[in-house]
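Journal club prep, notes for RB
We'll compare a predicted complex against what the paper describes. Inputs for the cobalt (II) ion case:
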Amino acid sequence: MFMRIDHVGIACHDLEEKIAFFERVFELTVVAREVNTEQGVKEAMLHIADGEGGGSYIQLLEPLGPDTPVGKFLAKRGEGVHHVAFGVPDVVQALEKIGDQGVRLLDKQPRHGSLGSSIAFLHPKDVGGMLTELVQAAERQAGVTPNARNADT
Ligand code: V0V
Ligand code: CO
């Protein structure tokens, strides 16, 4: 079901400061930034490696306010690992299978995630205390579409 670790999400107070740290110390590069109002975060993806069906990243998360998942987490626990996200080939299918095992689904349907992905969360209390995210990466149109078009003509 899991193809790779897509990302590890890290909650922080100051996104720019943490980006600078990860770039300097670990020589990582930011490949995407997004404000996701539905999830209540301003986030950045730092690329680590490419894997089957998508890459793997560190995701830095700054809350948009105190009454958001990451805002509440920071108030309760302080900065640190907020969630682990696993790459799946089909997030709808994975949700159905995992739900059938009695794990509470925080999202019954996939939502919009970083880099055009479809994401869904599982309740941390049902996964050994780990907030778990499922990620279906966006189709890599840049690589696929032009070749497919050439093949047609
Ligand atoms: C809360 N708990 C956690 C946790 N957050 N445990 C592990 N890791 C976390 N991140 C524990 C908490 O300590 C409580 O345990 C219990 O779960 C219930 O927490 P709560 O504080 O009462 O409830 P809330 O209102 O804070 O809700 C927690 C959940 C919420 C997990 C339900 O944060 C949620 O729905 N998260 C999913 C969405 C999300 O996190 N979005 C931001 C990332 P005790 O104290 O009762 O033992 S967005 C993202 O990753 C994107 C966009 C992307 O990847 O593309
Ligand atoms: Co995430």
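Talking point for the session: The two ends are 36 Å apart (CA to CA).
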